[in-house]
């Protein structure tokens, strides 16, 4: 049999036998009353709880892959144990069911059933932790003051309902034992103060200090003959082997193998196996979150270990066990680093029964109650509530409901309720967020893109129908399935009805894209998302500027339109009708089509270093406007321009460009820009490339000079601009923010078309 290795992170702790031994002692002290109390709560012999604790520590501890988890009798199973013992007619038939349940858990582990834990939301697991913390606090407050009459046994918290836990809280006020209260309050104070003292940095754990303090105070009361003496009923009670003729054979119970064929036995075994496995996986995941080194425990190996432990427990008279969050949390907080602490606690349980019953029976329950109250507060800390609140209602509400449900019912019921609430939020998100409707502003007008999520299930049908019914005559609609892995037949039928019948009857231009082969709906694009002759002729310079402005806003905010560039290549192959010509720099950070979120065929792009004018550039722009029909010329400079920086330095030093660089044609770029450098007269002590503000001002002046040169050197373009056929404007692109600023109030002068802002809903 091959088991998964334990994943150890780079920050794995240095092994420390001392810390592990101390952790084992602390867990042992907490485990004794838990084992006894859960046995009483389960209606089973007291020794059955201790037997499970011993096996959970030694056997499961040795086989488990978890460093922090500690196993033992499970409070969450107490109600099931009570019911099964009653239905099977005794404890021995029940033990047979436990042994079989262990074998089933081994099978679960071999079949990799540990993956089940990955399907539980983090909010539910955190709710489980916090709920157990709340239960610990509620159940231990009475014991803190000496009210130890809880019928479920010391520190058991399986059935925390209003008839016991909260009644006990009220009864505590009237039934305070002064001696026990002094011990409990003193130990609680020590645990609260301990982290704020230098002692917190020592190897000595605060819980052990609290136990010793409580034991010392109790012994002082006893030896002094004080009236505050704590009676035996308020101290730990361990069965004493050898007393009154009690031997090991008298406390070990074997299963009733004669009932092996009884269907009731197998039903009980399956029930125990499923519930114990589920509780183990939940507690194991929660325990990993408590591990200060954040190591991962292999769940399949844990199921194997628990299965072996439960089979053995069933054979020798023990209760069913799981990984237990209370003991595990105490183990982690005590500084234990490896599973040696769990094994140590198991041997201590075994040894204490045989060798130290007298000493153990002197420890006040109030001292242990103080330890568990502090442990409970750490599990249900206010910071945990704040953290879940910040994550949103979809995390906070299942978290809180899980806590309330566990406190008022039991662990399994509470977790199931929490899962149901989490599933409800998943359904809500699928109903309302499984579809994304994007309103896109193309050159041809508004296109409504309905994006299907990764899974379009029947849950999305109502929302999709509502969206499609909201469109009206003349709307352009695209149903986009490119992100969708699977489309439910009900959703597909709704789409098909809209495309084939509803949309044509209502005058809606409906398109589809991204549907896989085999679907009854094929890709069909009917909307126009490139500049056609008709669109170009309808454009004004002001409208073109508005399109550029809106495109840059989308680019800078990361909301670029979805475009089928291959389709645009095909549609523009027969002719081009761009709406603008843009003279920009060759800088790799300033590609005009991207900056203005444009498609293929929407603009003529003229690129020269420093966006300077040449005869060839003028000829290109004349063709763009006079022949091809473009309505706007944009001279686009940008911040931190390399050509401008170089020119600033050349002007400052007065050097020869060709001689200094070896680039004989570079002067054709720097000479025009040098006029802009000299035109910049603002007072400054640094007129070199090191002064970024100076460089950016020169770049803007260069844009203005280029505009004037275009008008001076091209009578054709100047006349067209004068008549209003075209506009020649300038802009500056910020390479840091991605935003374009248009110069000289161009937006106000040319805003002839009412602005239409694209948005995403």
Structural commentary:
- By secondary structure, the chain is of the alpha/beta class.
- The chain has 3 domains: 29-420, no CATH class; 434-513, STAS domain (Transcription Regulator spoIIAA), CATH 3.30.750.24; 533-760, Beta-carbonic Anhydrase, Chain A.
- It is built from 31 helices and 14 strands.
- A hairpin with a 2-residue loop joins β3 (435-442) and β4.
- α3 runs antiparallel to α10 (263-290) and α10 (263-290) crosses α11 (299-316).
- The protein is elongated, with a radius of gyration of 39 Å.
Layout of helices and strands, plus pairs?
Blueprint: H1 17-41, H2 46-63, E1 70-73, H3 78-88, H4 91-110, H5 122-144, H6 165-174, H7 178-193, H8 206-224, H9 248-251, H10 263-290, H11 299-316, E2 321-324, H12 325-333, H13 340-355, H14 357-360, H15 365-379, H16 382-390, H17 393-408, H18 411-433, E3 435-442, E4 445-452, E5 455-456, H19 461-469, E6 476-480, E7 486-487, H20 489-506, E8 509-513, H21 533-538, H22 541-557, H23 565-571, E9 580-584, H24 592-595, E10 603-607, H25 615-627, E11 632-638, H26 642-653, H27 657-661, H28 667-679, H29 692-713, H30 715-723, E12 727-733, E13 740-742, H31 746-750, E14 759-760
Parallel strand pairs: 4-6, 5-7, 6-8, 9-10, 9-11, 11-12
Antiparallel strand pairs: 1-2, 3-4, 3-14, 12-13
Helix pairs in contact: 1-2, 1-12, 1-13, 2-11, 2-13, 3-10, 4-10, 4-11, 5-6, 5-10, 5-15, 5-17, 5-18, 7-8, 7-15, 8-15, 10-11, 10-12, 12-15, 16-17, 17-18, 19-20, 26-28, 28-29, 29-30
């Amino acid at each position: 049999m091959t088991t998964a290795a334990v994943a150890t992170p780079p920050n794995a702790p240095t092994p420390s036998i001392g810390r592990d031994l101390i952790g084992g002692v602390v867990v042992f002290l907490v485990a004794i009353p838990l084992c006894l109390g859960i046995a009483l709560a389960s209606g089973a012999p007291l020794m059955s709880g201790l037997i499970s604790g011993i096996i959970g520590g030694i056997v499961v501890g040795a086989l488990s892959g978890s460093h922090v988890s500690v196993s033992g009798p499970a409070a969450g199973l107490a109600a099931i144990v009570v019911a099964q013992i009653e239905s099977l007619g005794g404890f021995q038939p029940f033990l047979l069911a436990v042994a079989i349940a262990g074998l089933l858990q081994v099978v679960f582990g071999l079949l990799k059933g540990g993956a089940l834990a990955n399907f539980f939301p983090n909010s539910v697991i955190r709710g489980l932790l916090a709920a157990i913390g709340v239960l610990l606090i509620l159940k231990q407050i009475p014991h803190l003051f000496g009210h130890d009459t809880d019928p479920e046994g010391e520190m058991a918290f399986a059935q925390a309902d209003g008839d016991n836990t909260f009644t006990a809280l009220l009864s505590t006020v009237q039934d305070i034992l002064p001696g026990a209260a002094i011990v409990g309050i003193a130990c609680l104070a020590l645990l609260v103060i301990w982290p704020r003292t230098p002692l917190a940095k020592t190897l000595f754990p605060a819980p052990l200090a609290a136990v010793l303090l409580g034991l010392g105070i109790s012994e002082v009361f006893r030896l002094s003959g004080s009236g505050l003496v704590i009676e035996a009923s308020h101290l730990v009670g361990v069965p004493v082997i050898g007393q009154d003729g009690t031997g090991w054979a008298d406390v070990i119970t074997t299963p009733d193998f004669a009932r092996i064929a009884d269907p009731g036995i197998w039903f009980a075994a399956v029930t125990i196996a499923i519930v114990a496995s589920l509780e183990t996986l939940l507690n194991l995941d929660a325990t990993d979150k408590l591990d200060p080194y954040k190591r991962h425990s292999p769940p399949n190996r844990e199921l194997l270990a628990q299965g072996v432990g439960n089979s053995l427990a069933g054979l020798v008279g023990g209760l069913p066990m799981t990984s237990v969050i209370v003991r595990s949390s105490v183990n982690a907080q005590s500084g234990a680093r490896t599973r040696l602490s769990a094994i140590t606690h198991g041997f201590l349980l075994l040894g204490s029964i045989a060798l130290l019953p007298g000493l153990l029976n002197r420890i006040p329950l109030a001292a242990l109650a103080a330890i568990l109250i502090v442990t409970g507060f750490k599990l249900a800390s206010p910071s945990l509530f704040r953290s879940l609140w910040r994550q949103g209602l979809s995390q906070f509400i299942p978290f809180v409901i899980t806590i309330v449900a566990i406190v008022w019912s039991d662990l399994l019921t509470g977790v199931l309720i929490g899962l149901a609430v989490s599933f409800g939020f998943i359904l809500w998100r699928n109903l309302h967020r499984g579809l994304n409707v994007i309103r896109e502003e193309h050159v041809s007008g508004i296109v409504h893109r309905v994006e299907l999520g990764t899974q379009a299930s029947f849950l999305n049908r109502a929302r999709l129908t509502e969206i499609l019914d909201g469109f009206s005559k003349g709307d352009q609609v695209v149903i986009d399935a490119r992100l969708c892995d699977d489309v439910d037949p009900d959703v597909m039928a709704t789409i098909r009805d809209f495309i084939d019948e509803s949309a044509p009857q209502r005058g809606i231009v409906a398109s589809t894209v991204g549907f896989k082969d085999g679907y009854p709906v094929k890709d069909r694009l009917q909307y126009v998302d490139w500049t056609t002759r008709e669109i170009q002729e309808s454009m004004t310079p002001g409208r073109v500027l508005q399109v550029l402005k809106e495109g840059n806003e989308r680019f800078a905010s990361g909301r670029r339109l979805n475009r089928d560039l291959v389709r645009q290549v095909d549609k523009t192959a027969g002719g081009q009708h761009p709406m603008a010509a843009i003279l920009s720099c060759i800088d790799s950070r300033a590609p005009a089509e991207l900056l203005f979120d444009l498609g293929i065929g929407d603009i003529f792009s003229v690129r020269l270093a420093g966006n300077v004018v040449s005869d060839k550039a003028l000829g290109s722009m004349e063709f763009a406007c006079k022949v091809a029909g473009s309505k706007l010329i944009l001279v686009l400079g940008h911040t931190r321009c390399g050509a401008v920086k170089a020119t600033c330095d050349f002007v400052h030093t007065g050097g020869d460009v060709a001689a200094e660089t070896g680039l004989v044609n570079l002067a054709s770029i720097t000479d025009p820009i040098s006029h802009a450098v000299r035109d910049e007269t603002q007072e400054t002590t640094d007129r070199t490339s090191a002064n970024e503000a100076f460089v950016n001002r020169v770049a803007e002046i260069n844009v203005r000079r280029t505009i004037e040169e275009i008008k001076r050197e091209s009578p054709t373009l100047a006349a067209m601009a004068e008549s209003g056929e075209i506009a020649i404007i300038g802009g500056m692109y910020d390479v840091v923010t991605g935003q374009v600023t248009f110069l000289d109030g161009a937006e106000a002068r040319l805003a002839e078309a009412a602005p239409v802002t694209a948005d995403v809903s």
